[in-house]
Amino acid sequence: MQQNAVSGARGQLALAPLRIWIVGDSEIVQPLECHGAQQTQLNPQARRISDEAIHADLASYEATQGRIQALNDGGRPIRDYHLSKAQCWLDVSFHEYTRNDRSAFPQEALTESEKLIVDMENGVSPIPTDTALVNDAKHLRADLWQRLKVIHGTPGFACAAQKVACGEVELVHAGNEFNQQQWRHSKPYIQIAEDLVNEAEAAARLCGVDPGGPVAGPAPVMGPLIANVVFEFDRDQYRDIRTYSLESVDRALATIESEKRELAGVTLVGHADRMQGRGFDYNQGLSQRRAQTVRELLIGRGIDPARISYEYRGDTQQVQQCDGVKPRAALLECLLPNRRVEVQFQLAQ
Q1: Which residue from 18, 297, 315, 320 has the highest number of Cβ atoms inside 10 Å of its Cβ?
Q2: Could you report the per-residue pLDDT of 15-47, keeping only the tens digit for each?
Q3: pTM of this structure
Q4: If phi over 0 gives left and psi between -120 and 50 gives alpha, with beta otherwise, what is residue 251?
């Protein structure tokens, strides 16, 4: 198993490997069983100094890629959730291997890919949809995990499965980078995950809709279209908004227009980060002022004020904890997703 290989390389006793699963909002730790799966072993980091070792590992990656291609050649669609997830685990494993990641992540991500491949090759049904936090990856962005979980239960999941699968894997990838080098290194992968979540929600909404033909009925609606407007620390004015988050609002409005949807209403939920230098009540007021600023922003973009409602939660709903992040500047940047106004565009049924 992968942890035995890593322990052996460090000259330690081999321990029974564990798996941490995301199930809803909780984590469950279980012993990892092989279930007869072939276990491809990468060379330990200490041995990746010769051409022979590196070529052997590259051959393992190529062989695993070949098995995924064979499943597709056999009729399993590219958009299939488990085939997509196997591919994304393989991709992040290879990505970190080529970046000389010295942790167990490349091996454990590869093993996740291979386990799914074996289940598909053996015709296992149903194949689990849980996502392992390999290498003890940090559970980041609970809001994104929840949005992906919601898509699993919708009729549009069939169209969104590929984006959902890769979004889940990228969140684990981001959590691994956070553990190794904190927020700065995890941020690009969180951005990838955010994009995948947005694309998955769009795919689910449009599932079964023929853009070139007549609309037989209303497009499937799985929930509100969500954008997040984030603010600088202890700030609440328009000039204090991160520019890229304004772009997320504009993309959402453009999506509503391109999908020819009717906007039923907008709910704004203001938030603050967990830094309570001025106390709980201050953060409540700060989150309220942020929501009011975004309300004015939307009115300026042509949305009827009567359709906009807002509420504020202060620092009671953190989506990113950033425990142990230092120095203070890095901590404040890490906590940025908590300093948000969630914009929920409610679409007409």
Answers
A1: 320
A2: 334 444 444 443 433 434 444 455 899 998 888
A3: 0.77
A4: alpha
